[in-house]
Design brief:
The protein has 220 residues and is an all-beta fold. The chain has two domains: 115 residues, YVTN repeat-like/Quinoprotein amine dehydrogenase (Methylamine Dehydrogenase, Chain H), CATH 2.130.10.10; 77 residues.
């Protein structure tokens, strides 16, 4: 396990996208040409990465939009909200093509499987849930221990494992069985808000309120 402390990050800004309320999520389209953003204003904005201009606006959620993600094909944009709903938008027609009514609590994070067939959702008030993208059917739920709140989720590149981050730990789940495979501990303070797999699936990177980024060799 290797850890590094991030002190500061200076980036030259070429395009600045200005909105009227807090932003809770951003996502690039697979081709890198469009940036989607969401936030407290309950609206999804699509921006041109090249020009910085607003391309489109998606309206439909009744409360704050917490997260959003493009399907691997780039044809569908999924969004999650405090209203407990997941909406699927056709990027080309700008229409809502499906709405999933979840378990009533707010949804904080969503992610497509690498194949695009399954969507996973999580929230502080909801279990980790897997959904069939084509039908909207609830496939299964994964329930961490009662004291654990889920802050972030990520599919492994092969689609066989799911990582979920909590206060100080990261859990790995078998997608097929829903069983807990292992738990990683190393962060020293609440909360682990960000996790991502490396493209080869051998490393997981996590970022925490303890001001560290940890690189985990998950095959150990």
């Amino acid at each position: 396990m290797h850890a590094c402390r991030i002190l500061s990050l200076l980036v030259k800004s070429e395009n600045i996208f200005t909105l009227t309320d807090r932003i809770t999520g951003v996502a690039f389209s697979p081709d890198g040409r469009t940036l989607a953003s969401c936030g407290y204003d309950q609206v999804i904005h699509l921006w041109s990465v090249d020009t910085g201009t607003l391309k489109d606006v998606f309206v439909g959620h009744e409360q704050r939009v917490r997260d959003l993600t493009f399907s691997p094909s780039g044809e569908i944009l999924a969004s999650a909200s405090s209203d407990g709903k997941i909406r699927f938008w056709d990027v080309n027609t700008r229409e809502t093509v499906k709405i999933i009514e979840t378990f009533g609590g707010r949804i904080d994070k969503i992610a497509f499987s690498p194949s695009g067939d399954v969507l996973v959702s999580s929230g502080r008030e909801s279990p980790i849930a897997l959904w069939d993208v084509s039908t909207g059917e609830h496939l299964k739920s994964i329930t961490p221990p009662p004291e654990q709140i889920t802050y972030s989720i990520a599919f492994s590149p092969d689609g066989r494992r799911l990582a979920s981050s909590h206060q100080k730990t990261i859990n790995f789940w078998d997608i097929e069985t829903g069983e807990l495979m292992k738990t990683l501990s190393g962060h020293t303070d609440y909360y682990i808000y960000a996790i991502v797999f490396s493209p080869d699936g051998k490393t997981l990177i996590s970022g925490s309120y303890d001001r560290t980024i940890i690189f985990w060799d998950i095959n150990r």
